[in-house]
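Re-run requested by the PI after the first attempt was lost when the workstation crashed. Everything re-entered from the original request form. Ligand of interest: fe (ii) ion.
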Amino acid sequence: MEQTMSDPVVDLLEKVEPLPTAPMILPKLLSALSDPDVDLDEIVLLVAQDPAMAATVLRLCNSAYFADSSPTAELRQAVARVGLYNVYRLVVTACGQSVLSIAQPGWGVEVHDFWKHSVLTGLAAEVLATECGEMGGPMFTAGLLHDFGKLLLASAFETDYGRVSSQAAGDPGKLVEMERISFLVDHAQLGGELLKRWNFPIEVEAAVRWHHSPEVGDGSNLSASIITVADTVAHLIQSSQGSTCAAEATIPGLDRACKRVGFSPAEFQSYVERMREMVTVVDAISQLAA
Ligand SMILES: [Fe+2]
Ligand SMILES: [Fe+2]
């Protein structure tokens, strides 16, 4: 009888029950925003298809971060007021928060620290992408979701994942290796696979899938390099804040990723300092969806 090989990624995704629901709106919004002729009504229509999201966008648009005039209960007016890109960022942040802020007992990483790491990486990736002449939106999304696979592993293996995570002792390269040995799949692969199933654009999927090995990639490795650099910066900043998302070692492939995005060592340092100064923006974005 013919034996079929099982796929560890498929097996694992089946083990995570229930799988977080796909943020259907995000891939559609991303492709709408990449169209230079997109108009406001198209975006309003997309957001309005999801009543819970429409309510969240209205609430966020009226929040202290954006509201400089009287509150509005009208979605079109709210979108016009804050601008299309800010609406996109709000929707990504709200979707991200709903899938990334699920406490995983036994993992050893605080939900709050993980969420902040995700937002910080998203923002750092957006800034870097823009400097590289790329679109900021897809890289903000990839940065926000880059470690989503860790949450899936923590959900599937609970304290076993917590043990692997603490044995890696803040060394991202060692963590990925240990994940492969213990669970036959690493968090980057797993996150990439889920984003593929959710129909995210290839550059977002590839950036997440290869963020720990940007030199491998598949030709889309500029996006993976952007996430590798942004992730490192987020870890560096969080290390000085005593976060449970701090890393004691740099991410493998960092040198090559820096070269790919065109950073000299001095430019990398100056980017770290610029991102350090943006921590208040990160805090504001982290709290927006709370
Ligand atoms: Fe990672
Ligand atoms: Fe990370």
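Saved to the shared folder this time. Residues 22-100 form one domain.
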